[in-house]
Amino acid sequence: xxxHSNNILFVVFLIFSVAAAIQLFYYYFFYLSVFTxxxxxxxxxxxxxxxxxxxxxxxxxxxxxLPAVLEQDYPDYEVIVVNDCSEDNSYVILGKYLMQYxxxxxxxxxxxxxxxxxxxxxxxxxxxxxxxxxxLFTDADCQPESDKWLEGMTSHFDDKITFVLGYGxxxxxxxxxxxxxxxxxxxxxxxxxxxxxxxxxxxxVGRNLAYxxxxxxxxxxFGAHTNLASGDDDLFVNTNASxxxxxxxxxxxxxxxxxxxxxxxxxxxxxxxxxxxxPYYKLRDKxxxxxxxxxxxxxxxAFILLLSFGxxxxxxxxxxxxxxxxxxIVFNLVQKRLNEPRLLAYSLIFDxxxxxxxxxxxxxxxxxxxxxxxxx
Length: 376
Description:
This protein is an alpha/beta fold. About 50% of the residues lie in helices and about 15% in strands. It has two domains: about 5-35 and about 290-340; about 40-280, Spore Coat Polysaccharide Biosynthesis Protein SpsA, Chain A (Alpha-Beta Complex), CATH 3.90.550.10. The longest helix has about 35 residues, at about 5-35. The chain is elongated and about 80 Å long.
């Protein structure tokens, strides 16, 4: 090779090394903290709590999963289901449970062809109907992993805590798509839980999130984001959470499990909706979230290029193996902590392609008008 070619490859090697260093920083500083974090063991919770669930055409899920919410081992709570323009037999299902559980309340939004709305409106109706200060949110297709979910998620509230971020995973089923959905959900959790542990909370998931009712109204609710189809969970947290007022809770008995999408097109639609909120994050958070996938793409691209030319190949392989071993160890530890078995082998492949998949899905949002009436 010519000196010019060597100079170019040397620059690529430096870029590769920097990208690897940034990747290792994310793994050791943010992701590993999800495993090493020592969950506080607070006293038994006694705060009155309002659980809020928004449901649209969720009769089957309400029938399957609502009892697990209604039968929590907790002394003082209400469950508010916002039946949002449902056209199935949700009202029949809810009516049956209404007779069985006195702490169940139903708010109904009737369909009006002159007025369409997103999930945030239904969420607002539920918050207005709540009588308690502590609000705990989940979805109709979610099931708590234990009857201690409510206690664990709300026991951290004191004079300083406004937000508690929980873990919401997906049910394990057969098929590669299910593996990828669970991997995607877990890696997002590694980010938002890890960053919150390090004092940089930037989002929560509506499948498992708690905050104060007074904070919602003091901060003008969903504010400037009311027009967006998504953001009822992450944007409210991004705007108002801080390292001082936020706590995480992800012990196993506080996890929730959701029904995953069964087709690629359904998952892409859901993913597009979730990604519409990213441009509205704080600049700090956007930079931190972009740096990891960008440097991951650079890392793999530079590795292939350098190895194909045999340039500094012992050093290149050493750096690559160091990052690979770190990835395997950290992912395996966090996988166990979040109770997401049998994902490690798949993660080695998904790690390469997920930044590209997310980029394609994200770019697919541009130039397309979103339907704010579709909120799931």
